[in-house]
Amino acid sequence: MLHCLIAAAKANIGETQDQIAARYGSGKVSEFTMGYRNSAAFAYTTDGYEITVIFRAGKSIAEMYDHKGVEVPEAEIKEALKVYSVGHSWKSSNNDRWWRADKKMEAHRVDQRKDCYVISWMTTM
Questions:
Q1: Shortest CA distance to 8 belongs to which of 87, 83, 106, 70?
Q2: Largest CA distance in the chain
Q3: Residue 30's closest CA among 15, 17, 47?
Q4: How many whole angstroms separate alpha carbon 76 and alpha carbon 2?
Q5: Cα Rg, the chain, nearest whole Å
Q6: Residues 108, 116 contacting (CB under 8 angstroms)
Q7: Cβ-count burial 84-100 (b if 16+ within 10 Å, e if not)
Q8: DSSP the chain
Q9: d(CA 64, CA 27)
Q10: How far is CA 33 from the centre of its chain?
């Protein structure tokens, strides 16, 4: 069941806005770009999550999963990270921050909230 929930509430980093909109609808423009310059943000709602996707040059570069007050267990985040492993393991310093061994992707809880996390490319903001 856990894997089904994650698959349903996943936007897929690297996808285009059209690909993500085909899955979740057009979404709504969001001002919350997580500090990424030259980017646009759109929010989508699915399966109890609000997913804010940051786009740069037409592709998703970061995704924030907000479960709106419902704790997201660490096991669920780790399951989501497996999708982005691409043959690499994930490291963790404190169970609230992870990075892929090749240092191309990272994930973290937002402001130490237990109901919200971000997965992104490790890029210059």
A1: 83
A2: 37
A3: 17
A4: 7
A5: 13
A6: no
A7: beeeeebeeeeebebbb
A8: -HHHHHHHT---TT-BHHHHHHHH-S-EEES--TT-SS-EEEEEEETTEEEEEEEETTEEEEEEEE-TTS---HHHHHHHHHHT-TT--EEESSSSEEEETTSSEEEEESTT-TTEEEEEE----
A9: 14
A10: 13
Residue 25 has pLDDT above 70, yes or no: yes
For tokens 């937002």, the residue is 110
Structure tokens at 55: 């786009």
Residue 89, beta-bridge partner list:
none
Which residue type does 2 have?
Answer: L
- Please write the tens of the pLDDT for every residue from 51-91: 999 999 999 999 999 999 999 998 889 888 988 888 999 99
